[in-house]
Design goal:
Strand content: 25-35%
Mean pLDDT: 90
Strand order of the largest sheet: 1-9-5-6-4
Number of helices: 3
Low-confidence stretches: 3-9, 16-21
Largest sheet: 5 strands, antiparallel
Oligomer: single chain
Order of helices and strands: HEEEEHEEEEEEEEHEEE
Number of domains: 2
């Protein structure tokens, strides 16, 4: 009985109500960095599409790009860094700077969607850090209609008796952004992105978004 009580306490601690709709994150500027053809910020390797946005050559493009859009897009994968380049390109990554820092004057192109913001330069990323102050927060919500298309796996599965058996390992993994718990199958799917892969989009279960 005592063990069950502490499990319930842990469960409700992980189900803190999020303050706003969607993932909570903060953005801070780091600097201007060199990019090359194999990409400095390469977190989208193997990804073809996230929701409605196509990914090509490890980036997504937007005709009206803003810093906020790129930060929100990369937050879907829990990435700690993102970069904007050449007015309209967005990159996500778990590290940056392997090709070296560049002069700030090289990152002076205005963002195509907000001329008061800077979106890098030619082969130069304006790099920002993303922090997630509510990583211990999980919000139960309807299964997203949007999915992730990828040549690499974007989920992994574990045996589970309760939703807590999903939330605890997700909370402990930097790669986990959401979970699907199927009580009928006694299985949980841990997701690398806030959207499920297409193969899991019709899964009957409870969906929990992290942070």
């Amino acid at each position: 009985l005592q063990k069950r009580f502490f499990l319930l306490i842990a469960y409700f601690a992980l189900l803190l109500t999020c303050a706003v709709r969607g993932r909570v994150f903060r953005v801070s500027y780091i600097g201007c960095f060199v990019d090359e053809s194999d990409r400095d910020l390469n977190g989208l390797t193997g990804i073809d599409r996230i929701g409605a946005k196509a990914v090509d050559n490890k980036r997504t493009e937007k005709s009206d790009m803003t810093v906020e859009f790129c930060g929100g897009f990369c937050s879907l994968g829990g990435f700690p860094y993102f970069g904007v380049q050449d007015k309209k390109e967005c990159f996500c990554g778990r590290s940056y700077g392997r090709f070296g820092i560049s002069d700030e004057a090289d990152c002076k192109l205005p963002c195509s969607g907000n001329s008061s913001q800077v979106c890098g330069g030619r082969w130069r990323n304006s790099v920002f850090a993303l922090t997630y102050p509510k990583l211990r927060c999980f919000k139960q919500s309807p299964m997203p209609s949007l999915t992730v298309s990828s040549t690499l796996p974007t989920s992994w599965s574990l045996a589970a008796q309760t939703a807590l058996d999903c939330l605890i390992p997700c909370e402990a993994s930097a790669d986990c952004q959401a979970v699907i718990f199927s009580g009928q199958q006694r299985l949980c799917h841990l997701l690398r992105f806030a959207y499920p892969p297409a193969s899991l989009s019709s899964t009957d279960g409870d969906f929990f978004l992290r942070g």
